[in-house]
Amino acid sequence: MLIALLIPLTLVAMVCMWVLLGAAIRERAVPRLEAVVLGAVVSFFDTLGIGSFAPTAAWFKFRKLVPDRLIPQTMLVGLTPPSILQGFIYLILLGVMVDPVLLVGCVLACVIGGFIGVPLVAKARVWVVQTVVAIGLLLAAIAYTLANLQLMPGGGTAASLSMALTITAIVASFVFGVLLNFGVGNYAPTLVLLSLMGMDPRLCFPIMAASAGLMGGSASVRHIQMRQMDLKIVLGITLGGFPAVLVAALIVKEMPVETLRWGVIVVVLYAAAVMARSAWLGRKGERLPLTPEAAAN
User: Fold this and answer.
1) In the chain, how long is the greatest CA-to-CA distance?
2) Would you call 221 helix, strand, or coil by DSSP?
3) Is the pLDDT of residue 263 over 70?
4) Residue 10 — pLDDT band, cuts 50, 70, 90?
5) Which residues contact 167 (CB under 8 A, 6 or more apart)?
6) What is the DSSP letter of 273?
């Protein structure tokens, strides 16, 4: 069953990188240095379990690097290659310890959800995307706070779940796959859910990383083809993410991250507030009647 995940993960990685590099060559895109540094930082802490979507979205909003409507797609495509590398590492190190039905079921459900979510985020109105991202940022901030206050479920020692809980986890993974397209990371909700069910938190990492890698790689190909992203930012994040993942996964075994989480919480809450305000103004603007000048345009 582990090989059954490693093979498609390898194929997805090859196709994703081929399409991404092809687009970069055609458009002669050059990675932005700021995005390289950002990708290195968020991928490093993502590998340690902090997550990368929330801080990346917060930085995008804070620095105004990417238009709001392109934030989810740009994050997903840029952060996917490092996530695929995480998937390889965690599947090899811990995958054999996880119940194969739970592992494969959650991963496949996340991938299917990701496919369904691609056209949804592409067609969604800007304020809808802003609202979903704002909610995702707020939930991430809550998860970080609970973890720092030792209120996050510590989990148990289980490597498998009952049939009812397994089905629940698979259904939830499908929802997480859809939300990944909107810039809502799957690490925090997956870790919370499986820990509440009694899973060993360490064994959540193969599920989280493999799901993000396979789903992200599949969805990224479609996003790249639709050209709904900032390619320079994508390339920078990917380029910075690869070495950061290797350093975090293979060199840094344990690291106190509570202080870093508090800093991330502040930034994420700020970005959530700004994003929510933008969504509110955008929705309010849609309700306003058009002036003759605006109607003419």
Assistant:
1) 66
2) helix
3) no
4) very high
5) none
6) H
Distance (Å, whole) CA 255 – CA 257: 6
pLDDT at 292: 47
Distance set, CA 85 to CA 12, 13, 49, 70, 163 (Å): 11, 9, 14, 24, 30
Phi–psi pair at 123, nearest 5 degrees: -95, -10
Q: How far apart are CA 110 and CA 175, in angstroms?
A: 7
Contact 250, 49 (CB under 8 A): no
Place of tokens 């390898």: 10
Please answer whether residues 74 and 53 qualify as being in contact, where contact means their C-beta atoms are separated by less than 8 angstroms.
Answer: no
Residue 158 φ then ψ, to 5°: -75, 145
- Whole-angstrom distance, CA of residue 181 vs CA of residue 123: 12
How far is the C-alpha of 63 from the C-alpha of 61, rounded, in Å?
6
Taking the C-alpha atoms of residue 117 and residue 109, their distance in angstroms, rounded to an integer, is 12
Query: Quick check: 91 and 213 in contact, CB under 8 A?
Result: no
Question: Is residue 17 predicted with pLDDT exceeding 80?
Answer: yes
| pLDDT at position 261 | 65
> What pTM does this model have?
0.76
Is the alpha carbon torsion for 3, 249, 222, 224 positive or negative? negative
